[in-house]
Amino acid sequence: MPAVPPSKLPAASEQGGPPPEILAAFEAAKGFMPVDEGLALYAAAVEAGRLGLPLLEIGTYCGRSTLLLADAARRAGVTALTVDHHRGSEEQQPGWEYHDPETVDPEIGLMDTLPTFRRTLHRAGLEEHVVALVGRSPQIAALWNSPLGLVFIDGGHTDEHAGADYAGWAPHVAVGGLLVIHDVFPDPVDEFTGQAPYRIYLRALESGEFTEVSVTGSLRVLRRTEASASGHR
Ligand SMILES: C[S@@+](CC[C@H](N)C(=O)[O-])C[C@H]1O[C@@H](n2cnc3c(N)ncnc32)[C@H](O)[C@@H]1O
């Protein structure tokens, strides 16, 4: 499908929200994203889907946000890709605030969110619209070489991980496509897992390649307005 110039893309607010059954599945799924941020992510994904390029998420967890990307991908006739090693982020490990004991594989004693993710997607009838990439984000990014309509960064919250997600995936956002970053907290008083997402958000703006489109809670939507020196045109 040929790319649609950004000026021809309707505003996110004109897109309509997800169907009620998808919103209900999102609300029922394990995960951390509030509904208002989910609706903003969905609007961004529907808009970006008009470019006819895949939508990619870093940080699948149990599939809560993936459901929204998957439904937007279904609407656009594109594929949603979601990257996760499924072993959990630092703050989700046993003993930490965001740990859920149900996510531990009792046989090996490590987190494994892949089975729950697959059930989430299956129940919502969206399996065929999603390709799950199971592995470490920088390792997969190093193998990737095609343009994306949307990149949603919601993976590890350390500078090492968030920085690698930005460096590895942002260059693949096509001109006119969207970069969405979750857990952006400009005020350290509000943050709960570190300000690395805020720092990559600043990097994106300071690069001069992205322009802010919307702010909803801790979710930031940016549009690529200039080609990346190392990416796609
Ligand atoms: C905050 S959760 C994602 C939440 C999900 N987007 C949602 O809305 O429910 C972060 C996820 O990123 C994954 N993750 C963290 N660092 C990663 C890395 N370097 N490569 C792949 N996945 C990673 C973790 O396993 C975890 O499932």
Automatic annotation (TrEMBL):
<dbReference type="GO" id="GO:0032259">
    <property type="term" value="P:methylation"/>
</dbReference>
<feature type="region of interest" description="Disordered">
    <location>
        <begin position="1"/>
        <end position="20"/>
    </location>
</feature>
<dbReference type="GO" id="GO:0008168">
    <property type="term" value="F:methyltransferase activity"/>
</dbReference>
<keyword id="KW-0489">Methyltransferase</keyword>
<dbReference type="Pfam" id="PF13578">
    <property type="entry name" value="Methyltransf_24"/>
</dbReference>
<protein>
    <submittedName>
        <fullName>Class I SAM-dependent methyltransferase</fullName>
    </submittedName>
</protein>
<dbReference type="InterPro" id="IPR029063">
    <property type="entry name" value="SAM-dependent_MTases_sf"/>
</dbReference>
<keyword id="KW-0808">Transferase</keyword>
